[in-house]
Amino acid sequence: MNSSLLQLEDYGLTDLSIKWEPMDQNTADAKSSTAITYQVAYQTDNPLKYKLTLEFRHLIGSAEGKDHLSVQATIVGYFLFQETMTPQSRERAIRINGLTILYGALRGLLLPITAAFPLGFRYVLPAVDMIQIIKAVEETKKAAPVVGENSARYRPRIKKAVSARGSKTVKP
After folding, report:
1. What pairs with residue 29 in β-bridges?
2. Would you call 20 exposed, middle or buried from its count of C-beta atoms within 10 A (0-12, 13-18, 19+)?
3. Maximum distance among all Cα pairs of the chain, rounded to whole angstroms
4. How far is CA 82 from the centre of its chain?
5. Which whole number is the average pLDDT over 145-161?
6. Which pLDDT score is estimated for 123?
7. Closest of 92, 69, 68, 66 to residue 79, by C-alpha
8. Cα–Cα distance between 100 and 94 in angstroms, integer?
């Protein structure tokens, strides 16, 4: 796909929570879970303008149930497509390219914030296969679609959550 067909016009964090407590480096019983939720909408008066909301959650805790790391973030991006793209192409591009762009932007925002934490802690988002996440989301959408609230200017497309490993659906 030609990158000029999809343009990120603006993006920003709408929610961020990071809780960190030092953990013994020898702790082998740490359990980790990651979930990504997203919502796609297009502008009602211009269907070439899309709003993409990505919600990210990552928890690392011990077998005793104590959370050592909790990261929750919501980032919203506004995208513009060229008229030459079909609606089907836009729907595919906003998911694959749009989510990848916002996930990369979120990675770039979290690293410098966590670099200020004590003991040299710096948080880097885990690597995910966005295509696998989207496939899992689409499968769960067929079973039970969920539509979230949006501003009046944007009409919702889809809202689903799935773990980064694609094995478990998470309700927002």
Report:
1. none
2. middle
3. 56
4. 24
5. 47
6. 85
7. 92
8. 9
